[in-house]
Amino acid sequence: MPIQCSTGCHKNAVLKRPKTGDALCKDCFFWVFEEEVHHTITAAKLFTPDDYVAIAASGGKDSTVLAYIMKLLNDRYNYGLKLVLLSVDEGITGYRDDSLETVKRNEQQYSIPLKIVSYDELYGWTMDRIVEQIGLKNNCTFCGVFRRQALDRGATLLKVDKIVTGHNADDIAETVIMNILRGDIARLQRCTAIVTASEGTIPRSKPFKYTYEKEIVMYAYFKKLDYFSTECIYSPNAYRGYARAFLKDLEKIRSTSIIDVIHSGECFSVRDGVKLPTQGICEQCGHVSSQPVCKACVLLEGLNKGKPRLGLGKTSKIREHLKRNDENLEGVVASDADTHKINIPKTINIKQLDF
Ligand SMILES: Nc1ncnc2c1ncn2[C@@H]1O[C@H](COP(=O)(O)OP(=O)(O)OP(=O)(O)O)[C@@H](O)[C@H]1O
């Protein structure tokens, strides 16, 4: 016998909400999903009228749903935002070129203009070439550091006021766990912030901070959104994979685990007097950095000097060498043994969800 939607709308339920366990029909699910994101946006005052906002768009499920919902809420609630899609082409043949085709279709489907910046034009390197140098291990470090800066650079070119990313509640909870396991209190303090903004950078926010990944997948599925679902061919998911697996296990026992971990992260505070890194400007490229030379410049220097592992080891030592323009970098370059990898799939198959 069909189960009725728990809102009392008299329609049949088609899903069980992962966040609350409620049985809902499609329309009521769409409504609660959209209203929760609207609540997150308004409660945190993420935007002001006339803001020009770049949606960081990879073509994946999170940023595709984000682009769709930003447009929907902007129209429904008259936020008064001017929207633009901003994509970074990391130069990964057979992956990013295909996902960018999806973003190009989204540009037409949602009538939001698109700007693409590439690692090749910004750094003179594509990820394909970086992987040729460094191999599959550690390549995510390059990609993550370069992408962060590339988004900033693209946003500066566009002269936007704000950037939004599709980071969801699961991503944030994983980051909390990773920072605890690494004892990284500086990042632990920052990682749950819904807006990150340091002087001289364009503020970034996460409207999906409280949105479960499973619900984003369901929303995209029932709305039949056009998104790219293949995993990155170079990403074995590194350390994050362990945190992800741990969180998924917790979620099976207790559905609120994701939000609970985020709340725990928010409750941490650093004792007065504990020294934390301060943000400054990179001496080489002028971008924001907590070190005299930013990580992107250190990594680039290594690539250009034919020492791609530079920057993967103890960064303080490497920066000293860079300062002295030291050509002999032996002994400061990380070995393969410094990293641990695990292969855990990131996408959720909608058929595996518990309806
Ligand atoms: N190449 C890119 N260009 C623009 N934005 C990106 C790119 N890669 C990632 N992002 C932004 O960072 C967010 C988190 O990226 P992550 O790599 O964790 O992917 P994800 O969780 O699979 O998200 P998505 O489903 O949107 O790809 C994305 O939602 C998007 O907003």
Automatic annotation (TrEMBL):
Gene3D superfamilies in the cross-refs: HUPs
Record pathway: tRNA modification; 5-methoxycarbonylmethyl-2-thiouridine-tRNA biosynthesis
Boundaries of every tRNA(Ile)-lysidine/2-thiocytidine synthase N-terminal domain copy: 53-246
UniProt keyword annotation of RNA-binding present: yes
Subcellular location as annotated: Cytoplasm
Keyword Acyltransferase: no
Annotated ATP binding sites: 56-58, 62, 88, 166, 171
Keywords assigned by UniProt, alphabetized: ATP-binding, Cytoplasm, Nucleotide-binding, RNA-binding, Transferase, tRNA processing, tRNA-binding
Main localization, broad class: cytoplasm
Enzyme Commission no: 2.7.7.-
Identification of the protein by name: Cytoplasmic tRNA 2-thiolation protein 1
Taxonomic source organism: Petrolisthes manimaculis
